[in-house]
Amino acid sequence: MKNRVMKAIIVDDEPHAIKVMSSLLEHYKNIKIVASYAKPEAALAEIARVKPDVIFLDIEMGYIDGLTMADLFNQQHFVDIIFVTAYAHYAVQAFDVKAIDYLLKPVQKKRLDQAIERLVTTRQARINGKDEVEPEGQHLHIVSFDHLEVRNQDGKRMLWRTKKARELFYYLWLTDDRKANKSVIIEKIFPEKDEAKALALLHTTVYQLRRGLADLGFSESIIFSQNKYRLATSLMSDLERVETLLLKGLADDKELDEIARLYKRDFLGDEAYDWALSTQHQLRNRAFTVVSGYMEQRLREGHFTFSDESLALLMYLNSLSEQGAGLIIEILSRQNRRSELVHFFNGFKTLLAKELKTTPSKELLSMYDEAMLQ
Questions:
Q1: Are residues 248 and 228 in the same domain?
Q2: pLDDT at residue 165 above 80?
């Protein structure tokens, strides 16, 4: 990799700046300038054909900025970006989109040396001796219950530059690509922003995601086509397993305990994404129906040795349900756990009074009294 010649293009609306950068880059044996463009739209039209490894991209280019162009380039061909600017205040934005580096005009050779070294190091770490494509048989692993996490098969975690980058990833993962229209994404992810600002933020956020996924070895994972974004990589998730268990039903206590381990907290945790609330509620309701139904069936068969984790899951899924409370009363009673039974029922009564301003039904009180007499 270190000896590989990297194809570079220069995009700058000032011909003199192109000439200066070309002259500087000629001294690097591992950089080959294959094209230069004074018009960014011309570079965009040819990037799929030229397929550069790196773009030296001006930020200030009149009617369109380099930050936006960076995303447009990567919609067609994943490429490393080194920004070039006459304005220092763009530095933070450049790193927000995970550029390899940014260089201030006039470019100094020492800084260019550092940028090229950073480029080589980054590409070496990313590729690690493999082709720049998704390795065969590799998957992204997504955690969506308890906490949010994305990692590759080696356990390397996705680093989220912003909360919006994480939200956009989960939105693309959950949304049918037919619904992932750019305008719909803006409406869902950036509802508080005006159209121009939201579009710029979307481009920046997509760029961040592409960089983060490339760092995990998935460099072509977000595809833009027909004005829609979609994730284009193999995925494995805890949601997939939870939905499989809920769809087929629980076969035994081992599967009940498995879903209890997975479903420690709500789907997507504490992230109250408006677009995900209906999915979150549906999953919770389905899980409660399946778990409570399994426990009722097993109790009728004379089985009551459920784990504490499964009892906690039942009440977590619907802490105000008398159906769930009745099951726990019966189970704790059969397990001869009187003190835990008293503690649970007192807590349930307190919760009903606080949340619903009510008390347990006569039927539930009778069940509890009967259990305490046994």
A1: no
A2: yes
